[in-house]
Design goal:
The chain is α+β, with helices and mostly antiparallel strands and about 475 residues long. It has 16 helices and 16 strands. Helix 8 packs antiparallel against helix 9 and helix 13 crosses helix 16.
Length: about 475
Amino acid sequence: MKYEIVIGLEVHVELATKSKLFCSCSTKFGSEQNENVCPACAGMPGMLPIANKKAIELGIAAGIVTNSEITSLITFDKKNYFYPDLPTGYQLTQLLTPICKNGYVDIEINNNIKRINLKQIHIEEDAGKLIHSHNTALVDYNRTSIPLVEVVSEPDFRSAAEVVAYLEKLRSLFTFAGISDCRMQEGSMRCDVNISVRKFGETKLGVRTEIKNMNSLKAIVNAIEYEAQRHINALEDKTEELTQETRRYDDNSGQTFSMRNKEGLADYRYFPSPDTLPIKINSEWIEAVRMSLPEMAHEKFARISALGIATADAKIITNSKNIADIFDALITRDVPLKDAASWIVTELLSMDTEENKSSDNIEIDTNKFADLILLVNKKVVNRNVAKKVLALIYKENIDPIEYIEQNNLSMISNLEVLDKITTEILIENAKIVEEYKQGNERIGAFLIGKIMAKTAGKADPKIVKEILQNKLNGIEQ
């Protein structure tokens, strides 16, 4: 391939504050339309903005976890443009003094570490949301003035795989630090992709296209692949003239479509906001934020790996803050470390896969989960039955202790009972036993399955295996 893709990202991340950036309205997701709106965020005249201290602290935290320089004196600027979802006619953002500069994020790609450099991180307010229905556009201002950080990278990406690795790493850094929940499906993490194509060996950037408001990794990959090929076709076949523009990606067609020519700084008529005071960020404040940060993903990975958890399992657990929190909750209930890891990776996440649900959205009562694992460890119930009970805890929030007792699911470990059942199974499956005599030792698993089925899955598998093996060895002799 004689062309290389050059990509830069602008990632918008909603900050985890309870109130908006410049007023006290709630940031709760899923509220009724226009429920969380006041005269200030609705753009009524005479209402002055007051900066949210928590948002500033989360901006500092974003700088710390991305190895950035924190600006000592920040201000806000007005970015002027007209759109129905922007009631003031401008957006308060940071052009002149972004809160963070010159950071970096290291990603792992093909077992190698690549450094992605960051131009800046700045704090800004979100716009509202347009809802289109029956040739009518309705405006919901709930999101207006919700605090965001925009993480602006240098054009350091050369593939969609690198973009995905970076977004996953950024999501991990921000969720573990409590900066944001980064739920792309809820709009709390969105990505603008700036993409161009040039021949290998060239240093000059090609004509740049910006693909706006991407909110899923799959869509981002598809959009990059389509747009890169469109650029290459234009350069090779002269099928169209590339222009600097903003485009949108359509999931249904798998194509991008032109929205407008790309604006420049002059188009937005930036100027310092006279309504917001400068904010001084001293070293003491930065250090206080640093000390308040919780355990990060790489720190948790190192900790649980050192305790004997397999590397593959440790990576899965620390890939999601939600899953890591479930793991920690289990071990605080004295669930053995390896059991906690095994049940999460093998059982809980397999249900997640079946339901096509993000790991970050798994909700389960960890006390009931711990009770179930401990019941298995105490041989009150076997693992096969416990797996079914886990699904009921997950879906219906049942109490495992009560459910197992009420449904007579306790494990059968009585030697006489299991010996009798095993003998019956051997008689019922005489032909299979003959195969064993002829040297087919694999039929043992089949017979164990028959015994487990006859006990409704409640038999102690270890005892069943021992009894069966002894009987088969006797037959063989």
